[in-house]
Design brief:
- By secondary structure, the protein is an alpha+beta fold.
- Helix content is 12%, strand content 26%.
- The strands form five sheets. An eight-stranded antiparallel barrel has the order 6-7-17-15-16-9-8-18. Strands 10-14-13-12-11 form a five-stranded antiparallel β-sheet, with no helix packed on it.
- Helix 2 runs antiparallel to helix 5.
- It starts with a strand and ends with a strand.
């Protein structure tokens, strides 16, 4: 029996109903799942958006069969208040030759010294004229100075090893499913987070951005960056400074030709994709600034979205998984309407 949804009588967000069970989402604003008591039409609020229930007759008694609730319908029904603007000061914009643009949300709470370097390099226009030098299939795209000869601006120095941070003080929204690599996982802002032993770190998921480095004890400066374009390499967690997440442009960088030299580097300089410019979004002229929103991970809409993704009931699925991996539940992001 498909899920159906309606507005909470108190106006407190989404309420999902699932025939045959009673479930509560583990969330600061829980989403109740309750067995429907009547086939009659609910007829208002989020019910229309999520379940598309339409009574066949005025003042009618019986509604059409509910449309299955999917992650897409949950997002479509999420109220505007559930979407939070991402500060343009926290967006790194990379413009590539050929017209491609990559926008990265920076995670200052997890690697502040590395990100301070990245901001300084962008504001010094240091990345301009460099290139994407490596595309390794099912792994990463990497960019920076391919020859390693461009001097860094004054003030750029190796930061500490920002591979994890104290978990205390982080407002982490937990994902209520087990994880292979961390005691607990969850979300903060737009980012997937692992936690254990009093420490927290960003997890290597598709689109996550990290700092390229040499072997230990090198920690990188932020001059070389990479983005994950394949199966999440979670074994890298807590071994590299993770600085952000690609919000737009994965279709551009993931489609680049694969490098044929060792580790996916390009064998010839002519194969590289030139970087035209890298800027902090807030430093661009206003008409050029990208604007994004992330679904608030403390909202009822996010809790409903997670539950529906873990328990698919629409026509394609025979067996709902009843579980969800942190990399498959990264907070939804959209361009500001």
């Amino acid at each position: 029996m498909p899920l159906a949804a309606r507005s909470s009588p108190s106006g407190g967000g989404l309420q999902l109903r699932f025939a045959g069970s009673t479930l509560r989402a583990e969330h600061p604003s829980p989403v109740r799942l309750r067995r429907p008591t009547s086939p009659r039409c609910a007829g208002r609020g989020i019910l229309h958006a999520l379940a598309s229930l339409a009574c066949l007759l005025p003042a009618a008694s019986v509604c059409a069969a509910p449309t299955p609730v999917t992650p897409t319908t949950v997002l479509a029904a999420a109220p505007a208040a559930d979407w939070k603007a991402i500060d343009p000061n926290d967006l790194l914009v990379i413009d590539l030759a050929g017209g491609g643009r990559v926008v990265i949300a920076l995670a200052d709470a997890f690697a502040p010294a590395h990100i301070a370097n990245i901001r300084a390099l962008a504001r010094a226009h240091w990345y301009d004229g460099l290139a994407i030098e490596r595309v390794q299939d099912d792994y990463v795209v990497q960019w920076g100075d391919p020859d390693g000869k461009k001097p860094l601006p004054p003030g750029i120095a190796p930061p500490p090893a920002e591979y994890e941070r104290p978990a205390a003080g982080l407002a982490l929204t937990p994902l209520p499913y087990p994880d292979t690599y961390a005691e607990h996982v969850g979300f903060m802002g737009a980012f997937p987070v692992g936690e254990g032993g009093g420490e927290a770190w960003l997890t290597h998921c598709y689109g996550i951005v990290g700092v390229g480095r040499d072997v230990n004890p090198d920690v990188g400066t932020g001059a070389e960056l990479y983005a994950v374009i394949g199966q999440p390499p979670r074994g890298l967690d807590r071994n590299i400074a993770v600085v952000g997440r690609v919000l737009a442009g994965m279709d551009v960088i993931a489609a680049l030709p694969r490098g044929t030299a060792d580790l996916g580097f390009y064998a010839e300089a002519s194969q590289r994709t030139p970087i035209l410019r890298v800027r902090i979004a807030a430093d661009l002229p206003l008409p050029e600034q990208p604007r994004f929103q992330v679904l608030d991970v403390t909202s009822a809409g996010f809790a409903a979205w997670v539950h529906v993704k873990a328990n698919r009931q629409d026509a394609f699925f025979l067996r709902p998984a009843g579980a969800l991996d942190v990399c498959n539940a990264m907070p939804p992001v959209r361009r500001t309407p």
